[in-house]
Design goal:
By secondary structure, this protein is an alpha/beta fold. The protein is built from 13 helices and 18 strands.
């Protein structure tokens, strides 16, 4: 079976020492074993503005200066071939190739001053997916239980769903640039906070979730008895060093069984319930149907949905892949964005915002559209743009943020923030704040160090 089970096997496995097992046993004697990780301070009570988050991660790094922060007065080698157009929000202009999105900008807040200094995809990707600075700017940065958890895993740890739906769902890719990019799962919080993850294509006519269906002839009761037998064998074998891992697997198993037996969960994932016209409206692509599924999931009560635009950074084809548009071989950046990136974005994001608004979901659903960095304002020798984390744009909509609003400002060439620089930690804090989670809340890593989950929320963008 792929999906939930195989996806999690692909991540690093938790390992506990005998000392940690003894510590866990002592916690049990003190009556603490059933509690979540302790926090060093009492979190503030914050009124939630959003019930759910749809996190649309644009792997590869979209060009801010060619989309949402255009500089028409800049020299040719900076401004690129596109012209800005007016939008439904007073004073906000975006790229002429995004006219449908321009008509929805009255729903949107643009943050034009996001900044960091990680120039490699895996480091920058981890920073964007967790809001925590990586230990190094190294393309060889690998997934590790010493690194911070994904946003959705933190939410599942601090404010899990109690409505029978999973808290955190992620699909349809494991993203990587060489090695798997860190920040896609629960890390040191434990496997029970991993996302319900799958790689099945929502655009396939055969789309279904095998992890939500039992193998033929295997009932839930039989499956449970098998697990109980395995637990007995494990106890008799004396696997004390693995006691914590076994407990986590048990909790993960129980969660999976509950999902398998839930008609509401199965209905939420059943795209055949959508009329053909709605499916065509989103576009019959993997990304389009993934966005439609995201709408269905938040409508059913899932709290955090991450949709990955592509599994790889892209750049070598003009009909697939992520936003990494340096210019390779016979392809050039503006060929790729003209023929693929802009059209698929124009087809899906406006429709998602419309549907959420039409169904009364936009006010309670925060939509986040972002990559790990932007592109160099100055064109390179291939008439393309390279990695540029020093200043780029993030798009937010719904979920308690202001409408038709711009926060922050870049300089004349969109190279550096000119006003109100925003770090990924601050963006993370804003997401948590809008969900009603205090960004100053601390969780403990494997070394028992307290770590705040976010920086400072951007209160100026809160409606």
């Amino acid at each position: 079976m792929n999906g939930l089970f195989s996806g999690c096997r692909g991540f690093a496995q938790l390992r506990w020492t005998r000392r940690q097992a003894l510590r866990a046993g002592m916690a049990g004697m003190l009556g603490l074993s059933g509690l979540p990780l302790l926090r060093a301070s009492t979190p503030r009570k914050i009124r939630p503005r959003a019930r759910s988050v749809i996190f649309l991660f644009q792997w590869g790094g979209p060009s801010h200066i060619d989309m949402f922060d255009m500089k028409p007065s800049a020299p040719d080698k900076i401004r690129g071939p596109y012209k800005p157009i007016s939008t439904s929000a007073d004073g906000i202009q975006i790229c002429e190739l995004l006219p449908e999105l321009a008509r929805r900008m009255h729903h949107v807040t643009l943050i034009r001053s996001v900044t960091h200094d990680m120039k490699n995809h895996n480091s920058a990707g981890y920073y964007a997916l967790t809001g925590h600075r990586p230990p190094s700017d190294d393309q060889r940065l690998r997934d590790s239980l010493d690194l911070f958890p994904a946003y959705g895993s933190v939410v599942d740890h601090l404010a899990p769903n109690t409505n029978g739906m999973p808290t955190f769902v992620a699909y349809p890719h494991v993203i990587r640039d060489g090695s798997v990019t860190p920040g896609q799962h629960a890390s040191f919080l434990g496997k029970k906070h991993d996302p319900l993850f799958f790689q099945d294509d929502p655009n396939s006519d055969r789309f279904q979730l095998p992890e939500l269906q039992l193998p033929s002839g295997l009932t839930l009761d039989r499956l449970s008895r098998r697990r109980q037998l395995q637990q007995l064998v494990d106890r008799q074998a004396g696997y004390w060093e693995q006691v914590a891992e076994t407990r986590e697997v048990d909790e993960f198993f129980q969660k999976a069984v509950e999902l398998m037996s839930s008609p509401a969960v199965r209905r939420a994932f059943d795209l055949t319930q959508e009329p053909d016209a709605v499916r065509e409206r989103y576009g019959r692509t993997t990304y389009g149907q993934s966005c439609l599924l995201a709408r269905r999931l938040v409508e059913a009560g899932v709290k955090f949905v991450t949709v990955y635009f592509a599994p790889d950074i892209g750049g070598r084809r003009i009909d697939s892949g992520g936003w990494d548009t340096h210019g390779f071989d016979n392809t050039r950046m503006f060929q790729i964005v003209d023929k693929y990136h802009f059209p698929i974005t124009e087809h899906t994001l406006p429709v998602l915002l419309d549907e959420l608004d039409e169904r009364g979901l936009l006010e309670q659903t925060l939509v986040v559209w972002m990559g790990e960095f932007g592109r160099t304002p100055k064109l390179n020798d291939n008439e393309s743009r390279d990695h540029w984390p020093q200043c780029y744009t993030v798009l937010l909509a719904g979920g308690g943020v202001k409408r038709g609003y711009v926060y922050g400002k870049s300089d004349a060439y969109a190279m550096f923030p000119d006003e109100h620089p925003v770090k990924p930690e601050d963006l993370a804090a804003t997401i948590y704040y809008l969900l009603g989670i205090d960004p100053a809340t601390e969780i403990y890593d494997r070394s028992q160090r307290p770590l705040a989950i976010g920086g400072r929320p951007i209160l100026d963008i809160v409606a």
